[in-house]
Structures are given as C-alpha cells and as structure tokens.
DNA sequence: TTGGAAAGTCAACAAGGCTGACTTAAAATC
DNA sequence: GATTTTAAGTCAGCCTTGTTGACTTTCCAA
C-alpha cells in the first residue's frame, strides 16, 4: 500500500483537497477510535462490575431490549459470537431473573427472549450512563459533526454488518 | 436520566433543532460504535492470527512505531493496562525479534522500546490494512464528515485520555 | 418418515485482562 | 552515606469471553 493518495493533492485531479486522506490523518482517526472506544465502554463497565457481569452481558441486554422477543439465532447473528459463548452469558442472565426465554408459538424450537422488570431496570441504568456520555459528546460537537460521525462509522462497516445495523427488527412473536 | 432533552425541541429555547439528541439518535450512535469497531479491528486480526499474536500485540507495535524509544511506563499509560499484562505481550515480541529493548542512557532504569526491521514490517502490514479500510470510509464520507467524526470521538474521550491522544510524543533516546 | 434446523450442553483451551507479592537496579532524597 | 522511591520485571493465580468439537433433544418440513 502507501498509494499516491497519501500525498494529499492529486495533481491533475478535480481540484478537491484530499489532505484528509494522508496517512497521518488516517492514523489520527485510528487512534481516536481506539481511545474513544475505551471511554465509550468505561461507564457501563463500572456498573457491570457491581453485578458480576461483563461487557458480553451488556450487549445481550441491549439487543434484547432493542428487539424484544428476538430469537437466540437472531441474537447470535447480531453479536457475531458462537452459540456456546452466547449461551453461557444468556444462561447467567436467565438464572438471575434478568431475561425470560419463552418457547415460540409458531415454531416451538425457537426461544424468544424478553427482559424481565429486573433486567429492564439494569439495562436502563447501563443505557443511561452510556447515553449521557454520548449526549455530552453530541452536544459539544453539534449536529453537523454528528452526521459526519455516523456517516464515517457506517462507511467503516462491512456491507453485511451495515445491513444488520439498519435492519434490526424481526423478533416479536 | 431521560431528561427533557430527549424530546427534541426545547420549547422556549434558542430555536435550534435538537432532534439529534433524542434517545433514539443516541442509541443509533451507540450501536454504530459497536458495529464499526468490530469491523475496524477485523482486518488486522486476520493477519495477527497467522503470527499467533492478538490485538494486544498490535496495539504495542502501533504505539512503539508511533513513538520510537518510548519507555515501558509511557506505553503503560497509553494502553491503560497493568504492567503484568503489557509485560507478557512485550516479552513475546522481544523474544520473537520484533521489538528491541534498550537500556536508557540518562536513566539506566528505563528501557526504551524500538521496532526491529522484522517488527516494523509486521506493523506496516497491520497499519496498511487498517488504513485501507479507514481510507475507503473517509473517501466515501468526504472531508466534512471526517471532521465531524473526529470531533465527536474526541468529545467522547475522558479529558486525561484526550490529553494522551494529542500529546503522544516523548520517548526518543 | 426422515432430514435438517434451533437450541442447549459438556469439555477443553487460549487470549488478555486483573490482583497481590516480591526482586533487582538505579536514581533521588534526606 | 543511608534510605526511600521509581522503573522494570517476574511468579502465581484468577476471571471473562472468545474459540473448537462432539453430541442431544425437540420439532418443523419436505
């Protein structure tokens, strides 16, 4: 790699300034992702510690809240982990009375996942602190910056993941 | 939480449109971070597998490349892990001839870290694929979006981390 | 009736975090 | 000069969360 693009201006190009594509700018973006992601997860992590849960539990709670009645297979696709890995997490949440697993009505092989009152309360706590940080960042940066933020993140996703990102719905038996 | 802000428009406010601060918009941002970060790390991860290394090794290589001659303590602060955790990773990289650890000239307690030729080559491979994804995303989104992307990520960082993000330099001897 | 899909389980393993305790060497301070 | 502090490194043990592989149960659908 290290294509000519890194130089900034394309000599005969359309005249657009391509300085934002230099290796240095790209590196700053990469480091920003690394640093920001750490702090992005830090607030929920602190709450999870008190409950003997980890980030994996948070993710499960989030997407069950987001799509109540979602099936295990569905969740598997969203989270991108193995059945065994998800099952361990889910088992804990169900045992602790955070998540309810209901046998499907149409297809009895499926299990539809729902948050209990208790689970919804925990999810709300986690979402609140994470949204608080996000809201502060959004407010500080302003609407135009937020639009750009979302655009770049979306462009960074693989096409299949982008489809997931847009099309989380299903569930609901 | 769930302050009135989530409603969108402040009735008596300055007239600015605050729809970008709704809980729904914030949730989309949170999910975008989750999905994008996965794919952001996926390309280097594939390369690392072939070398029996993990993400932790990548991070070490990146920041040593970025600040040649940096000390262990310095790297510790940047990565935000324990000495024991970093040491395990660093030991592997040194044994494999990827990283060189030189006793400090001024302060002989310090060890200054440098990439070897071999280490630099691996780091270049990792950086190349990660930059390629970043470049494609930047190009697709355009310079204005990129500026917003960086602004929001920076606003998401804790102040101390933001200082680190800006002020990685030191090292050098 | 049979094949395949959805879910769940057991076992074993690895990466990469963590804590706590302790050593060595060298610098800094009293 | 003696003492304290700092930088680095090490050993041991633990946890979470990911992995593979093998196997079962249930049930839908061809």
Automatic annotation (TrEMBL), chains A, B:
UniProt cross-references to Pfam families, sorted A to Z: MarR_2
InterPro entries according to UniProt: HTH_MarR-typ (IPR000835), MarR/SlyA-like (IPR039422), WH-like_DNA-bd_sf (IPR036388), WH_DNA-bd_sf (IPR036390)
Gene3D superfamilies registered for this protein in UniProt: Winged helix-like DNA-binding domain superfamily/Winged helix DNA-binding domain
Domain of life: Bacteria
Record-annotated HTH marR-type domain positions: 23-158
UniProt-listed PANTHER family: TRANSCRIPTIONAL REGULATOR, MARR FAMILY, TRANSCRIPTIONAL REGULATORY PROTEIN
Protein name: MarR family transcriptional regulator
């Amino acid at each position: 790699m290290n294509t000519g693009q890194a130089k900034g201006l394309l000599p005969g190009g359309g005249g657009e300034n391509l300085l934002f594509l230099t290796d240095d700018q790209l590196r700053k973006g990469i480091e920003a992702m690394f640093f920001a992601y750490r702090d992005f997860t830090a607030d929920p992590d602190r709450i999870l510690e008190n409950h003997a849960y980890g980030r994996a539990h948070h993710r499960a709670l989030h997407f069950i809240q987001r799509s109540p009645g979602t099936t295990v297979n569905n969740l598997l696709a969203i989270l991108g982990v193995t059945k065994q890995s998800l099952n361990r997490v889910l088992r804990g949440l169900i045992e602790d009375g955070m998540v309810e697993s209901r046998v499907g009505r149409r297809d009895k092989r499926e299990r539809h996942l729902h948050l209990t009152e208790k689970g919804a309360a925990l999810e709300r706590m986690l979402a609140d602190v994470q949204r608080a940080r996000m809201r502060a960042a959004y407010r500080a940066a302003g609407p135009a910056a937020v639009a750009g933020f979302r655009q770049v993140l979306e462009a960074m996703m693989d096409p299949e993941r982008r489809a997931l990102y847009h099309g989380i719905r299903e569930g609901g038996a």
